[in-house]
């Protein structure tokens, strides 16, 4: 059972690669961004508490996201590998993750760093949208539905965009990544855990690089 972190700025492809690993390897994706969006959709007190911060592109508190991860791990079977996506995002979260993993009898195997070009990423993120019916991902320039206005996967005509996928918020999220998240790399580098991957390559090529790393770690 592997426990891995997918690390990289917003739009680097963490969610796409995590979804594939879930489908192909039976791992479980633990995305704090997804958990927080779910709390907002469900109108919970937590959802209300984090809404404004999320919409600005800033980070919510370390205590909140670490508690979400701890809770989620409690629900997993010991045999299920975990993919941490969008967590940890600060050094304090990285330290909490060590404690949390130990408490759950798990150890961190690998940190996959998706290395990307920031300006290209902004273009990627600002154009992305998903099917409201099945969640299939699309893009204004890179991947339009074959029949305009109709989802290729489920035929739905409803699409949605994340409210924080606008240029101003994306730039703030990048700045947060550079200031607070990139500095956690040395924390893992000194333990020999970081494996860089060219995140600007095609989805398939990135997948192949990740597969090779995970096969070697298994
Ligand atoms: P994401 O979907 O990972 O890009 O996350 C969307 C937003 O949720 C971020 O811009 C933050 O406001 C918040 N968020 C998600 N994960 C974390 C985290 N690990 N630490 C702090 N804030 C987070």
Architecture overview:
This protein is α/β, with parallel strands linked by helices and about 220 residues long. Helix content is about 50%, strand content about 15%. The protein has a 5-stranded parallel β-sheet with strand order 2-3-1-4-8, sandwiched between helices. Helix 6 crosses helix 7. Adenosine monophosphate binds next to helix 2 and helix 3.
So how many helices? 9
What's the story with the biggest beta sheet?
5 strands, parallel
Listing every helix as H and every strand as E from the N terminus to the C terminus, the arrangement reads: EHEHHHEHEHEEEHHEH
In terms of DSSP E residues, the strand content is 15-25%
- Give me the count of strands: 8
Bound molecules: adenosine monophosphate
Helix content: 40-55%
Euclidean distance between termini CA atoms: 8 Å
Low-confidence stretches: none
Mean pLDDT: 94
What is the global morphology?
Answer: globular
Order of strands, widest sheet: 2-3-1-4-8
Structural class: alpha/beta
Overall radius of gyration: 17 Å
């Amino acid at each position: 059972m592997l426990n891995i972190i997918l690390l990289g700025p917003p739009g680097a492809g963490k969610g796409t690669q995590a979804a594939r690993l879930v489908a192909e390897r039976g791992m479980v994706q633990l995305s704090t961004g997804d958990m927080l969006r779910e709390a907002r959709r469900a109108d919970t007190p937590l959802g209300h508490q984090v809404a404004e911060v999320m919409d600005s592109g800033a980070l919510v508190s370390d205590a909140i996201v670490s508690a979400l991860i701890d809770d989620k791990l409690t629900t997993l079977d010991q045999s299920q590998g975990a993919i941490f996506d969008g967590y940890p995002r600060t050094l304090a979260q990285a330290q909490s993750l060590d404690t949390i993993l130990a408490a759950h009898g798990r150890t961190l195997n690998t940190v996959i760093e998706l290395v990307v070009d920031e300006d290209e990423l902004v273009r990627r993120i600002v154009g992305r949208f998903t099917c409201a019916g099945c969640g299939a991902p699309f893009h204004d320039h890179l991947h339009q539905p074959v029949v305009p206005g109709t989802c290729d996967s489920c035929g739905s005509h409803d699409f949605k965009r994340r409210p924080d996928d606008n240029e101003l918020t994306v730039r703030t999220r990048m700045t947060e990544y550079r200031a607070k998240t990139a500095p956690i790399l040395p924390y893992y580098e000194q333990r020999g855990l970081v494996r860089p991957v060219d995140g600007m390559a095609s989805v398939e090529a990135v997948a192949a690089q990740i597969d090779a790393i995970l096969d070697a770690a298994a």
